[in-house]
Amino acid sequence: MESWWRGILDSLVMGMVIPGLMLCVGIKWNDANPNPDMLLQPTEETVEEAAPQTMRLLSPDGNPEEMDMETYVTSVLLGEVPGSFEMEALKAQAVVARTVACRAMSTGGKHGNGSVCTESSCCQAFLTAEEYLRKGGAEETVEKMTAAARQTAGQILTYEGLPIEATYFSCSGGRTEDAVAVWGTDLPYLRSVESPGEEDAAHYRDEQCFSGTVFLDKLGLQLTGDPAGWIGKTSYTAGGGVDTMQIGGVSFRGKDLRSRLGLRSTAFSIDVRNGEIVITTRGFGHRVGMSQYGAEAMALEGNHYQQILEHYYSGTILSQWEG
Ligand SMILES: [Zn+2]
Fold first, then answer.
1. How far does residue 306's CA lie from ligand 1's centre (Å)?
2. How far apart (Å, rounded) are the C-alpha atoms in residues 222 and 242?
3. Do 292 and 301 touch, CB atoms closer than 8 A?
4. How far is ligand 1, taken at its centre, from the CA of residue 221, in Å?
5. 8 Å CB contact between 38 and 30
6. How far is the CA of 186 from the centre of ligand 1 (A)?
7. Mean pLDDT by 10-residue block, N- to C-terminus, for the chain (323 residues)?
8. Model pTM?
9. What is the DSSP letter of 284?
10. How far is the CA of 131 from the centre of ligand 1 (A)?
11. How many whole angstroms from 73 Cα to the centroid of ligand 1?
């Protein structure tokens, strides 16, 4: 598997590296033994020279406010991931969180004005250090998250020169999903990949039970007889999610069933036990992009954050945001 740092090294040799990347970052490496840890680490000199970057935060009252980028990234980390996570997983999450803010500024984002809001269901979770500590969070965790933001300061993922659609989620259940299967848009860097080692995540595997009546009501169906006979042909996506499922002769999309039934993911199977409908889901979230628990598993295996990002967003480039 070719890695990013190797690609960057090759580009440097060929004189094709993005000019701003060298200008702003001060890349250091050992030619004989390139170490991913040594790439894209700002030197003390460049940190002092770099102007603080800002992002646009949509406040709860609906007004966008300029905010220091790394303070924002720290707050996303505090809201999105446990303090127990490995530093390399946190650094991967920091790059992704920053990329989301930069993409919004580049494209207008979901809110059309370049801002990101503080809702995890819309943009990204957000918890200031003050709020985190007030809720009983540990000072050490704030320091750890701050370090993850600072150690990746300004770094984002790009594809064809633009910040990528850096989607992420909690747990895949073993394999991520193609973007096209969930949103209908194929993005070359958001394709299904293996995501091993997530078994300890809270929602790796879940069961939800429905009575036949509730199940039919949620789907708007009127059926009778043994529920075991209601479930028909099922097709699956590249990531192991339900693409379509016939229920009572009606074809449903997997993502519609997830929404109607309130399932944790589209990767599910349906059984009938003692007259009850039992749905077993794998993973939690849309399963497109980086799995947070998969990133943690990779970090525990000794992978660097660059390797984690390369795995989940294949073909993208770790770049320096220049606003
Ligand atoms: Zn939003």
1. 27
2. 22
3. no
4. 34
5. yes
6. 22
7. 41 36 31 39 48 89 94 98 97 98 97 96 96 98 98 98 97 97 95 96 95 97 94 96 97 96 97 95 96 98 98 98 85
8. 0.82
9. B
10. 20
11. 15
